[in-house]
Design goal:
globular; 518 residues; four-stranded antiparallel β-sheet; ten-stranded mixed β-sheet; 33% helix
Length: 518
């Protein structure tokens, strides 16, 4: 771990003592909502320290709360963002998949905070097609955004910025807090990273990190998908679907390595987007890797496992930059006296596969993509772990209640504020509802809905594949053994189906389990 990386953990921030809750009530509470794209909980050391240390993100957990049972409502970027903004499931906010356009005229938590006197800002990845609404200031990436020298739209004006995207987003967030906001008002800042979204391009200063590291192959890497028809149908395999040029940066100057024509063209264009200094550092790192790859002539499982190692190295290098910039922003709050009255949230738009089941990407209701990291620091609040079932529809009512804004009755989530304050909540939810819609589309993950309790996960793939799957999370956290229809599972299956239908009725999902199918 480098000295530069540890800088943002400097003593006064790490040793900061939170004020009592009653002291916070004298000053309005600011909200800093940091979200990364496709950041797996497996690569945050507060959750899992096998792969990387993330001390700046971990600081939030150490001085606040780590939610150990945190999930999404729809494991896909745009729909997940819509759920967070509205506090409603996808069918209720209208953004069910990435082919949609978010209806910016509808109720969102930034609009309600803005109406209550908050300064609101959205900086970074928006990915909802429509123009942001409810923000006094917005400066967003165009579409997915680029890792190097990205284009932004700032309050309607297009601008290209030189540098690495994660650094730029943190720069813009700090600049807005320092120079652009009305400091007489409380603020709500959404700082949303592109990273670590595909294609996992590291900052040039991080290219040589972990060079000597070999990552253990997940136990489920060679999953044969027995008893899981939809899992076998997907197209997000590291072996078959991870592109050599686009994903793994094997864009050789000799033009001898070729892959999917469309993806290869984008991969080579990504390289051309860099400036001369960036390309020089990139070439110094990748050209020897490309040369060795050509010489090795890998095939079969050797090639599969080489691709896994390349994926892990680049993904984790990107995470290092995310963590470093989280530290920069927290350090700004500390040095400007804002840490004492600012809720800090770190999350991802969903989970991600780090080779489990042989995959990258997300979308499924299986644990690795259904789960998402959620860390919150509330000054004067609880320190420790919360094991209640929480979901990304809960963020909006949490922010509203913290700000003293009435939570509208049509919001479907539940405020996490009592949990953040360490209060006992007698009647917390016993189950979560999930619904994924985007098919046919990229990665070929079939439509499905389901229910997740503390013990079991039941899901129904419908239309293109009609199959039920049931997992005992306690005994089978990797979701490898489908128990649906096996002798002895009849009672628990019937109970879960009844709970599932009740949730669909509660949330008024028009696509639902029919009583005849129970």
């Amino acid at each position: 771990m480098t000295h530069r990386f540890l800088f943002y953990l400097s003593g006064s921030m790490a040793a900061c003592a939170a004020l009592p809750v009653h002291a916070q009530q004298q000053r309005p509470m600011n909200i800093l909502y940091i979200m990364s794209d496709d950041h797996s909980y497996q690569t945050i050391s507060a959750y899992d320290d096998r792969f990387i240390q993330t001390p700046n993100i971990d600081w939030i957990a150490q001085h606040g709360v780590k939610f150990s049972e945190s999930f999404v409502a729809n494991s896909l970027s745009g729909p997940s963002r819509a759920c967070m903004l509205t506090g409603k499931h996808s069918h209720a906010n209208g953004f069910t998949d990435n082919s949609r356009t978010f209806d910016g005229s509808q109720q969102t938590f930034p609009k309600l905070l803005q109406q209550a006197g908050y300064q609101t800002a959205m900086i970074g990845k928006w990915h909802l097609i429509s123009q942001p609404t409810g923000f006094d200031y917005w400066d967003i990436l165009i579409g997915q955004g680029d890792y190097y020298n990205p284009n932004f739209v700032c309050n309607g004006q297009r601008v290209r910025r030189e540098g690495y995207v994660t650094n730029i987003i943190a720069d813009l967030a700090i600049d807005w807090m320092d120079h652009k906001r009305d400091k007489n008002k409380p603020f709500c800042l959404l700082m949303h990273n592109k990273a670590p979204h595909r294609v996992w391009s590291p900052d040039t200063c991080d290219l040589d990190l972990f060079n000597d590291q070999t990552y253990p192959l997940p136990a489920t890497f060679y999953d044969d998908y027995s008893g899981r028809q939809a899992a076998a149908k997907q197209q997000m395999s590291i072996s078959k679907d991870m592109d050599l040029v686009y994903d793994l940066k094997m864009a050789d100057k000799e033009n001898q390595i070729h892959s999917d024509p469309d993806l290869e063209a984008i991969g080579r264009a990504n390289y051309k987007r860099m400036n001369a200094e960036q390309r020089a550092r990139w070439d110094k790192h990748y050209e020897p890797i490309i040369r060795r790859f050509k010489e090795a002539g890998l095939t079969g499982r050797q090639l599969d496992e080489w691709k896994y190692q390349r994926y892990m190295h680049d993904y984790l290098r990107v995470i290092r930059s995310v963590d470093r910039n989280v530290g920069r922003v927290i350090d700004y709050l500390r040095t400007h006296g804002l840490l004492e009255n600012t809720l800090i949230v770190y999350t991802s738009d969903q989970g991600f596969y780090m080779g489990e089941h042989g995959w990258f990407d997300k979308r499924f209701m299986y644990e690795e993509s259904f789960r998402t990291p959620l860390l919150m620091y509330l000054p004067g609040g609880k320190h420790g772990v919360v094991d209640k079932l929480v979901q990304n529809i809960d963020y909006a009512p949490t922010f509203l209640q913290l700000a003293g804004v009435p939570v509208p009755a049509d919001i479907q989530g539940t405020s996490l504020l009592p949990l953040l304050r360490g209060q006992r909540v007698k009647h917390w939810r016993k189950a979560l509802y999930y619904h994924y819609y985007e098919y046919p589309a990229e990665h070929s993950v079939c439509r499905h809905y389901g229910i997740r309790t503390q013990r079991y996960s039941l899901m129904h793939f419908y239309n293109d594949v009609n199959q039920w799957e049931l997992y005992d999370i306690r005994k089978d956290p990797e979701n490898m053994h489908n128990l649906y229809g096996l002798p002895g599972m009849e009672k628990i299956t019937a109970k879960l189906k009844k709970q599932l239908l009740n949730l669909q009725l509660q949330y008024d999902d028009p696509i639902r389990l029919t009583p005849a199918a129970q």
